[in-house]
Amino acid sequence: MNKAIRATAMALVLAWMLVAPGLAQTVELEPETLSAFDRYVGQAERRMVDELHAGGSFLLPDGWSAERRDQTYLRLRRGEMAIENLGQGPEAQVPHGMVHHWAAIVFVPSATLDQALALIQDYDRHQNVYSPEVLRSRLLQRQGDDFHIFLRLRKHKVRTVVLDTEYDVHFARLDSRRAYSRSHSTRIAEVEHPGERGERDLLPGKDHGFLWALDTYWRFREAEDGVFIQCEAISLTRDVPPGLGWLVGPFVESIPRESLEFTLAATRKAVTMRQAAVAGVQIKETQDVRAK
To answer: Could you confirm whether domain 26-281 is CATH 3.40.190.10?
Structure first.
């Protein structure tokens, strides 16, 4: 290990030794924190309603300049991912907490809207599609296009945090080529000693504050050559210990971004595999018919 790498590693170790005591203390979700987050989400959802109307910016690049939009769609079709931090304004500042707001989009060639929706709505299999971030998944209830689901999440960044979470999810189709969903967390509980004999859920809102709320918004648009899949995520966590924002801020901010990048990449991979499987079945059926 050269001197530069050794110095960087030592700095990270020392930094974590300074930060860890502050993050190890349990904190309580204050009503004013949750109210400010709810106001932020409400403002974001009003913007989303406008985007879902005819002529609105349905997908992330649609609201950009023509040149940037066209270049982005070209990169998406080449297999890249576009991601934006949408939570940088003063309205994202909440007392005693941090709002994280990211949106990302990918393209799955040759796939269809129905294939993408079938994957996302197959909640019992999310533990397979999104492992290791999703340890367990279960559909608790469904009524038409409304779902209530359970996910056990695993977040890892130096230390590992496990969370038992539940969500209300609603899906809707705008037309034959476009659909969207919205998901609101209804319960998030940090798991103490996960997988051990003494495993238990801490009281929601009275924990280490690694995740207090998570709302996600999916959009799907089928094109002639595939399907665009976009996910926008708004989450609430504790704020950083006083005086350590310069050190912990970038560290905390990286977790929501990396989680969204992983989710979109895993979704693209799974839809691609599903599309390939369907194509394989169709080819075999055609061959069987011809053989007869």
So the answer is: no
pTM: 0.86
Distances (CA, A) of 289 to 49, 104, 279, 285: 48, 42, 15, 6
The answer, yes or no, to whether residue 168 has pLDDT greater than 50, is yes
Alpha-carbon distance of 78 to 70, in angstroms, equals 13
Look up tokens 């796939």; give the residue.
Answer: 111
Asked whether the beta carbons of 62 and 84 are under 8 A apart, the reply is no
Long-range Cβ pairs for the range 85-88 (8 Å, 24+): 85/257, 86/44, 86/232, 87/234
> For residue 209, which amino acid is it?
G
Residue appearing with tokens 């038992």: 164
Determine which of 59-63, 155-159, 180-184, 210-214 has the lowest per-residue pLDDT on average: 155-159
Degrees to nearest 5, angle at CA 101 with 227 and 44: 85
Q: Where are the beta strands (DSSP E) in the chain?
A: 27-28, 82-85, 93-94, 97-109, 134-143, 146-157, 159-173, 178-192, 200-201, 206-207, 213-223, 226-238
221 close to 227: Cβ distance less than 8 angstroms: yes
| Between 17 and 78, the higher pLDDT residue | 78
Boundaries of every domain in the chain: 26-281
Q: Which amino acid is at 142?
A: R
Query: What does each C-alpha distance from 267 to 42, 68, 110, 232 come to in angstroms?
Result: 27, 25, 15, 14
Alpha carbon distance 42, 53 (integer Å): 17
